[in-house]
Structure formats: structure tokens, C-alpha cells
Write a structure and sequence with these properties.
With about 425 residues, the protein is of the alpha/beta class. It contains 18 helices and 10 strands. It is globular, with a radius of gyration of 24 Å. The model is unreliable at about 355-370, about 370-375, about 395-410 and about 410-420 (pLDDT under 50).
């Protein structure tokens, strides 16, 4: 199956009338200031060194040829809420005609960052018609949508953010990263305008006419899933949880997406990342730490193994290789069940922390409840201990504890009689 590769001006990706969707197995926007800084400095360096053109990498696209493929690859909430596809049989209709649809298999970070760059130039007073006319299309009802449709966690935010001078509220960590990326680019552009006013128009023109991208168009959605798995270590490193999502989505596609397994994976991981964002916002856990907990928990629930994050992920991934379709469906389903349990328990903890007014329930102080199980059952991860804790019917207020002093297992058993009774 061939891959058709062409070199294009970066801006042409958005000026060709196509709509780009993010598949369900893709992570949300992940670039932070180091990656945005590299993007900007690459542009400035190429311009100031008078390079005739600058190639900014490769993107992999897959054509969506029918409605079912689109529904299999894109979060259903987006198609239903934004395009009404639950009630009609047509493709999303932008510019009063059926627009071509592409799936972004790899390159979301660069494409979105370039979109933000064009918005930043437009807000600084340059190329506003280019931004408004090429980067957006109109629906039949007259509403305007960006030609880049992000995943479920960012779709609504980005539609509002890209089309307005006023920023909507940032509800997730990836919303915040998008806003921070734009703010960084806008600051750099304004600074360049103030310090080098004679070159300001030229740098803007260079970013339109001299930045190129290699566009690789894939022949099938199966090839798209395969390419995604092989590209996951490019750019900013994926976390093990993000790699796990990509792996499970790949195998669900490989076996034909039985019983809407890919959509279930997307839904459960979407809920998982929302919980992780809430943990970060509450200053309970750093996102990467919470993600690692989930990977270890899945391995613990499914295989009763207590391993480090990397080993747990590799053993899960290696266990899927070589399995037949029936076994794959069962195994992937069990892994998703385990993640769903983790989401439920973390949500339970967050709800209890938010509802309680008692001292000891705020922020990092929830750890004492899991520390009880670390003493009773060494080797369990914090989240695994929390699952055991909750599964025994214990409520958090029954174990409010002062962990500012040294404590032993016997102290726990003596001071928390309910635990002693349960064991």
C-alpha cells in the first residue's frame, strides 16, 4: 500500500478547503514552552539566515471516505454536538458543500502550533484576511468553525478560542497548554514588532510563503493506526498512559473495532485524563505521576502484578502481541475495565475531598488514607491501595489520621480498629 508524499507550503494545508479531525487514539495538545520556543526560534533563525525555504517536518494524514469510518475514528460527541451527524447521513458540510476530510495521524502538535502562530500574527495586525478566510469555514447555519477540529477535551475550547479575541475559560490541562502556547507566540511577535519594526512584515510573509511541510497521505486507516504506533516517540515524549491508549486503540482497529471497542477506549481514557487534570488542579498529584499510577493499577487489577510503570506498560503491550482476534478482544476489554475502575475510584476520592469540610481532606493530605495500605500491604501502588480501601466498604472519614508523627503498622491497627476488624 503506497504512501503519497508531497512538499507543501505550511499555509496550504489550511487553504485547500479540507477539514482535519483528530482521531480518538491521539493525545491532546502536549507541547509546552520548550517545544513552542524551539518552533519560534527555528522560524526566526531560518528567516534571519535568509534560508530560501524551511522544512518544518512531516505530517501523516489519512483520507476519510465514508461516514462510518469518520464515526469510528472521531469522538461521537463532537460529530453529534458540532455537526449533527446523529440525525443525518451526510458528511460535515462546510462552505455549503461536502468538504474533504482528513484524519491527522501524526503532526497534530505542529499543525495546531502553526494555527496559533497565524492567529497571533492576525491579532498583531498582520494577515487577518488570510487567517479568517483560509483557516475557517462556514456551516450551513452560518456558524464559523476552524478547519482543525481537535479532540473531545479541546474541541469546544479551541472553537471558541480560535474564532474570538476573548479567551473562553480553560477547563483542562491541554486547554491551558493551548492558551500558553498562543500567549508565548503572541509575546514574541509583539516583541519582534517593537524591536525590529522594519522586518516585521517580512517575517510574517516568510512564515506564510517559505515554511514547508511534507504531507504523507496514507492509503488506509489500518496503515494510519500502524504509523501512529511507530511514531509515538517523536516530538515531546508520550507518557506511558498515552502510549497505552495508542496501543489499545491500535489493536481495537486491527480486529475490526468489535462492539464499538475503539469508542469505548476513547471515552474511558477521556474520563481518565479529565480526572488527572482535576488531580493536578487540586494540587494532589502531578499529571505524569497520576498517569503512571493508572498504568500500574491496570496491571495490578488484570494480572495481580506489582511493577514499576515502564515494566508494567511493556508487559501489557508484549502480552497483546501475537494474540488472535478473540483473545485480543477479551484482553483489551479487560484492560479497559480495569482503567474504568481506576477512574471510578479516583473520582470517588475527589468527590469526597470536595464535599468534606473536615480538616485533613484538602490537597495532598488525602495521601494518609493510602498510606494505611502501604503499611499493611507493602508493594501496592497508592491508587491500588485506594481501590482495596474503598472495595472493603471503608469511607475516608473513618481513617482520618495524623501522619505528622512516625507511625508503625501496629499503631495503625490500634488506632483504626475498623481496619483491624476488616482484616
Amino acid at each position: 500500500m503506497p504512501i503519497n508524499v508531497v512538499q507543501k507550503e505550511f499555509v496550504d494545508i489550511f487553504s485547500n478547503g479540507l477539514i482535519y479531525f483528530i482521531p480518538t487514539y491521539q493525545r491532546s495538545y502536549a507541547w509546552e514552552e520548550p517545544q513552542i520556543k524551539d518552533f519560534w526560534e527555528d522560524l526566526i533563525s531560518a528567516f534571519e539566515n535568509k534560508q530560501p525555504e524551511y522544512l518544518m517536518g512531516t505530517i501523516y494524514l489519512a483520507e476519510i471516505k465514508n461516514q462510518q469510518d469518520l464515526k469510528d475514528q472521531v469522538a461521537p460527541q463532537i460529530l453529534e454536538n458540532r455537526f449533527g451527524m446523529d440525525n443525518n447521513d451526510s458528511f460535515p458540510n462546510i462552505d455549503h458543500r461536502g468538504a474533504g476530510i482528513r484524519l491527522i495521524v501524526d503532526g497534530q502538535q505542529r499543525l495546531l502550533t502553526y494555527f496559533l502562530l497565524r492567529k497571533a500574527f492576525a491579532e498583531a495586525g498582520l494577515n487577518r484576511p488570510l487567517y479568517d478566510n483560509c483557516f475557517f469555514g462556514k456551516m450551513d447555519d452560518g456558524s464559523r468553525l476552524p478547519r482543525l477540529i481537535l479532540g473531545e477535551n479541546d474541541c469546544d475550547f479551541f472553537i471558541g478560542f480560535s474564532s474570538s479575541d476573548q479567551s473562553p475559560p480553560t477547563l483542562t490541562q491541554s486547554n491551558k497548554r493551548i492558551k500558553k502556547a498562543y500567549d508565548y507566540l503572541h509575546r514574541q511577535i509583539v516583541s519582534y514588532k517593537n524591536t525590529k519594526p522594519n522586518s516585521f512584515q517580512d517575517i510574517c510573509d516568510y512564515s506564510v510563503n517559505k515554511l514547508f511541510i511534507l504531507e504523507a497521505k496514507l492509503a488506509s486507516l489500518y496503515m494510519a493506526a500502524t504509523i501512529f504506533i511507530t511514531q509515538t516517540d517523536r516530538g515531546k515524549d508520550l507518557t506511558y498512559l498515552e502510549k497505552l491508549k495508542g496501543t489499545l486503540s491500535f489493536y481495537s482497529t486491527k480486529i475490526g473495532n468489535p462492539d464499538g471497542l475503539a469508542q469505548r477506549i476513547d471515552r474511558v481514557f477521556g474520563e481518565c485524563f479529565k480526572v488527572i487534570d482535576r488531580l493536578a488542579d487540586a494540587d494532589i498529584k502531578k499529571p505524569v505521576d497520576a498517569e503512571n499510577e493508572f498504568v500500574r493499577l491496570i496491571r495490578h487489577i488484570v494480572d495481580v502484578k506489582y511493577e514499576g510503570t515502564r515494566i508494567a506498560f511493556e508487559n501489557i503491550r508484549n502480552g497483546l502481541r501475537g494474540m488472535q482476534a478473540g483473545g485480543l478482544q477479551t484482553r483489551v476489554g479487560n484492560l479497559v475495565d480495569a482503567l474504568e475502575k481506576g477512574v471510578q475510584f479516583y473520582s470517588y476520592v475527589l468527590e469526597r475531598l470536595n464535599d468534606s469540610k473536615e480538616e485533613g481532606y484538602a490537597g495532598r493530605n488525602w495521601h494518609p488514607y493510602t498510606q494505611i495500605f502501604r503499611l499493611l500491604k507493602p508493594g501496592l501502588s497508592s491508587l491500588s491501595m485506594l481501590v482495596e480501601f474503598h472495595s472493603r466498604g471503608l469511607s475516608l472519614h473513618e481513617c482520618v489520621y495524623d501522619w505528622n508523627r512516625n507511625i508503625s503498622q501496629s499503631d495503625v491497627m490500634e488506632d483504626v480498629p475498623i481496619l483491624k476488624d476488616k482484616y
